[in-house]
Design goal:
The chain has 390 residues and is mainly beta. Helices cover 13% and strands 38% of the residues. The protein has helices at 10-25, 30-51, 344-357; strands spanning 3-5, 53-55, 59-63, 75-85, 120-126, 129-137, 139-144, 149-153, 157-161, 166-171, 181-191, 202-206, 213-216, 219-225, 227-228, 231-232, 250-256, 261-264, 274-281, 285-287, 290-292, 296-301, 306-310, 319-326, 334-336, 339-341, 378-381, 384-386. The strands form seven sheets. The chain has a seven-stranded antiparallel sheet, with no helix packed on it. A six-stranded antiparallel sheet has the order 5-10-7-8-27-28, with no helix packed on it. The structure holds fe (ii) ion. Fe (ii) ion binds at residues 121, 124, 126, 131, 168, 170.
Length: 390
């Protein structure tokens, strides 16, 4: 079994000791100080050594990236949208080619998905879980059956509780006329436990400007849920599985330039916490010393740390990886299309309720609703419009 003992960085240890010693010295006798010095040195040595022991045994299994990605409980679904939409024309924000309502052709520069004139996902229902739409690039227009709406993108994250039922549209207007409308974002479905499946629908908008990120030279880690390197994600929605720290939910996206690496400690819940790591873009990823040169899905042992490195040659493209982590909800999952419940009977009830109520109906003039080109990012919730921080 390949073992990769990551290198201890001597000056880092020294810095840690030198930072701690003066504080202690001011408060203790010489004898006490010396005893403490040794214990601090010992603790620092132990923690640094333990911290940097990354074993390939942390990788439990590997598999191809699919569409959607395979996800562990408490997650249900994850897709990465990467579309090079062209520049919009002056008259409208439509894509230049028509969709047929089901365009998922990966050989093309971009897909229309379920859109006809505008790429995206015109109005459709959900019940029983949450959608987390985490953007890196591009703009998404949201409208829903509660009369809520938003325009978000370029680093914003929309965290939506479908709960007892919502109909929404997610469409990609071509707002840029002078350059391509490049769209890059994840949509992640996070399950709700049975007790919260019928919670009121709502969403939270996490603006790019407020999202915690670990920034080191050549490294950006977007902290969308959970905590790493002292950065704690914004609060999720009130009924989310991620709301309770004990559920150990973490969602991180890693962007690493060539030769850069990033270390993630073991999950707080140890091996009881599920972890999936996705290598999405880049020439070569090293994960705990193991090399991957093609996109891959790794099932990781939550009880062990891992370190990823962009091992691509100098000047090659940045590496993009995603981590989905959480303690399993461990309840039966009955899933059909846009509904995720615990039993088949509840799925039938979801269809029946949707037919009867349309989850509030569709208050918008178009099924594939987009807002004017000049409108900036906004969130409309319960009649009040809010904006990103200036
Ligand atoms: Fe949706």
């Amino acid at each position: 079994m390949l073992e990769n003992l990551c290198l201890l960085v001597g000056h880092r240890l020294e810095r840690e000791v030198m930072r701690t010693v003066p504080i202690i010295a001011a408060k203790t006798s010489l004898f006490g100080f010396l005893a403490l010095f040794h214990s601090v040195l010992h603790m620092a040595t132990m923690s640094a050594a333990q911290k940097h022991t990354c074993s390939s045994s942390a990788i439990l299994s590997t598999g191809p990236l699919g569409f959607p990605y395979t996800t562990p409980d408490p997650f249900l679904f994850c897709v990465f949208h990467r579309d090079m939409y062209p520049a919009g024309n002056e008259k409208n924000m439509h894509a230049p080619r028509k969709g047929n309502g089901a365009d998922f052709d990966w050989s093309k520069p971009y897909r229309m998905y379920h859109g006809i004139d505008i790429a995206g996902f015109p109005q459709h229902p959900h019940r029983g879980f949450e959608t987390i739409t985490a953007t890196l690039e591009g703009i998404i227009d949201h409208t829903d059956s509660l009369g809520n709406a938003g325009r978000y993108g370029h680093g914003d994250v929309q965290w939506m509780t479908a709960g007892k039922g919502v109909v929404h549209g997610e469409n990609f207007p071509l707002v840029e006329t002078e350059k391509p409308n490049f769209t890059k974002f994840f949509q992640i479905w996070l399950n709700l436990p049975a007790k919260n499946k019928m919670a009121d629908a709502s969403f939270k908008m996490h603006w790019n400007e407020n999202i915690p990120r670990v920034k080191q030279e050549g490294v950006t880690v977007h902290v969308w849920a959970g905590e790493v390197e002292g950065k704690t994600a914004l609060q999720p929605t009130p009924f989310s599985w991620a709301q309770d720290d004990a559920n150990d939910v973490a969602i991180f996206a890693f962007e690493l330039m060539p030769s850069k690496e990033f270390y993630v400690p073991a999950a707080k819940g140890g091996s009881h916490t599920n972890r999936a790591l996705y290598f999405i873009e880049g020439d070569e990823m090293l994960c705990n010393g193991k090399s991957f040169t093609k996109p891959v899905h790794l099932t990781m042992d939550g009880g062990q740390p891992f370190e990823i490195k962009n091992n691509g040659p100098s000047g090659s493209k940045p590496m993009l990886c995603l981590l989905l982590q959480g303690r399993p909800i461990a309840e039966p999952v009955a899933k059909y299309g846009p509904f995720v419940m615990n039993t088949q009977q509840e799925i039938q009830q979801a269809f029946s309720d949707y037919r009867a109520t349309q989850f509030g109906g569709w208050p918008w003039k178009d099924d594939a609703m987009v807002f004017p080109r000049t409108k900036g990012r906004f969130a409309l919730l319960n009649g009040a419009e809010t904006y990103p921080p200036v």
